[in-house]
Write a structure and sequence with these properties.
single chain, alpha+beta, 4 domains, 3-stranded antiparallel β-sheet, 13 helices, 13 strands, 15% strand, elongated, transmembrane, membrane, transmembrane helix, Mechanosensitive ion channel family protein
């Protein structure tokens, strides 16, 4: 028996020695709260290593002591078959497993119970000791934040008032200078209320921003309101974060859009260069007139940019959104329904471009309107009359009617101006022809290379209609050439003593004076009387 008793004592000593040696060989990770070590972990838990486990438990316990409503008596222990769990209300603080018990002389349940006692004692004392002091510090910090916010709002009010006075003073000085120069300043003075309102709105927005940014700081001071602070910050940070992430993710699409735009831009420049060369005559294409060059360039440019937009559209942000697609379809339908007449005028403008019925600078007549073409675009054509009246005519109206162009062949073949006079049957037609031709040849603006000619257009009851035709290259000066031609016709006929029977006069004189100016009447002229002969 003594021998067996000694053997048992040796085995127990060996076991205790092994356990102590095991504890010294394994590194422990303490749980330290307020510079006080509560207990030490030697084993891991689940997927966490001892160091990670200790850090997590430390963070959870620090969260507990920072809570303003913390009560150490609410800590509970629940023993299970595998682990013992210490929790605060429904929040798990730590779990003790069987491996933890191997580093202690206590079973797992008793070890967990000792941990619970330590937590209640240490944390209860910590909360009692530090709660009042921390509360006072938090309140003082909150008061400091409130004072700072009030100071910032006061500074904003003072600064906005200074800016307002400075702007108003500068504006009034500017108005005085404009008034001294004779410029109207009534409209500018009406802008002053708008400027002051904008400054007031800007000040109000800045105050709102300051107050909103101060709220998270206030809530973050108190542990129980930290989640509110985080939520308020998230309302500002999350949108900016989303925008920045969207911009970063959109960079590849943006580069693609940039490449497409640059390529299209240089293609348009190339087309414009070719169009300019064609318009200047440096490049000639059969059956393609130089005046077609720039309109064709404009059409090609529109088509290229339209094609570019179609290619870019899938890369635009939100292009795959149903709302975006619906809005674009709605705008397209609205544009189509509301611009049918505009589209018809644009089509007519394109057709007129290639029909070449007129060009800028030509004297034309459209319906009752006659003038020089001063502007020609896809929608309308603008004429300027000899009275400096600008007439705007839709291209659709021009295409559906007839147009008279007086300038097309005026430089080459000459525009024929014609006017009609009526002369009595008593004057030989050869005399009338010579007088009309000499009047035309004496008119400034009538071509000297092409001889005028006369047409007898009618044999009336009491007179003959003679139409004189003269060539002129000055289609844009028709009114002046006509006026000078009529003056010369009067002078030539008066010099020859031939009456112009317009309006109608009968050849029966019955004692009336000849109808020509007195300067042209011969000195020996006598008024005719009735001549009666009898047998």
């Amino acid at each position: 028996m003594p021998k067996n008793y000694c053997l048992l004592i040796l085995l127990l000593l060996a076991a205790f020695t092994t356990q102590a040696q095991k504890k010294t060989d394994v590194k422990g990770y303490p749980i330290i709260i307020n510079r006080d070590t509560l207990f030490t972990f030697y084993a891991g838990q689940g997927l966490f290593e001892p160091a990670e486990r200790a850090a997590i438990v430390t963070k959870r316990i620090e969260g507990l002591v920072n809570r303003i409503d913390f009560n150490a008596d609410s800590l509970t222990l629940k023993n299970d078959t595998a682990v013992s769990v210490i929790a605060y209300n429904s929040q798990i603080i730590l779990a003790v497993n069987n491996k933890d018990a191997t580093f202690s002389e206590l079973p797992r349940a008793q070890l967990a119970a000792s941990y619970l006692d330590i937590l209640k004692k240490k944390l209860g004392n910590y909360f009692t000791t530090n709660n009042t002091k921390q509360m006072v510090i938090n309140i003082l910090q909150a008061i400091a934040v409130v004072i700072l916010v009030i100071a910032l709002i006061w500074a904003l009010n003072k600064g906005s008032r200074w800016v307002k006075l400075r702007v108003l003073r500068t504006w009034e000085n500017r108005m005085d200078k404009l008034a001294a120069q004779g410029a109207p300043v009534k409209y500018a003075k009406r802008l002053l209320p708008l400027i002051t309102s904008l400054l007031r709105i800007a000040r109000f927005i800045l105050i709102i921003i300051v107050v909103y940014l101060a709220l998270p700081v206030l809530f973050f001071i108190f542990p129980s309101s930290k989640p509110i602070a985080s939520q308020l910050l998230s309302y500002v940070v999350n949108p900016f974060k989303s925008i920045l992430l969207a911009l970063v993710h959109y960079i590849p699409n943006l580069l693609t859009i940039a490449v497409i735009y640059v390529v299209t831009r240089y293609i348009v420049k190339l087309v414009k260069f070719i169009a300019n060369e064609i318009a200047l005559g440096a490049i000639t294409i059969n059956s393609f007139y130089p005046e077609w060059a720039m309109p064709t360039y404009n059409i090609i440019r529109v088509l290229l940019y339209a094609f570019m937009f179609v290619v870019i559209f899938p890369y635009l942000p939100g292009s795959d959104s149903k709302i975006f697609q619906g809005v674009t379809v709605f705008l397209g339908v609205l544009f189509s329904l509301g611009s049918s007449s505009a589209i018809s005028n644009m089509v007519a403008g394109i057709v007129l471009t290639y029909m070449r019925p007129y060009k800028v600078g030509d004297r034309i007549k459209v319906g009752d309107a006659m003038g020089d073409v001063v502007e020609k675009n896809l929608l309308v054509t603008r004429l300027r009359t000899i009275k400096n009246e600008d007439i705007t005519i839709p291209n659709g109206t021009i295409l559906s009617g007839h147009t008279t162009n007086y300038s097309t062949v005026a430089k080459t073949m000459g525009l024929i101006l014609n006017t009609t006079v009526t002369i009595g049957y008593d004057v030989p037609w050869q005399t009338v022809h010579n007088l009309l031709i000499s009047a035309a040849e004496a008119t400034e603006g009538v071509s000297t290379e092409q001889k005028p000619f006369v047409l007898q257009t009618a044999l009336n009851d009491f007179n003959v209609s003679y139409q004189v035709n003269a060539y002129t290259p000055l289609s844009n000066q028709m009114a002046g050439v006509y006026s000078r031609l009529h003056q010369n016709i009067q002078d030539k006929f008066n010099e020859a003593g031939v009456e112009i029977m317009s309006p109608h006069y009968t050849a029966l004189r019955d004692g009336n004076h000849i109808q020509i100016p007195a300067d042209y009447v011969p000195e020996d002229y006598k008024k005719p009387g009735f001549k009666v002969e009898g047998e």
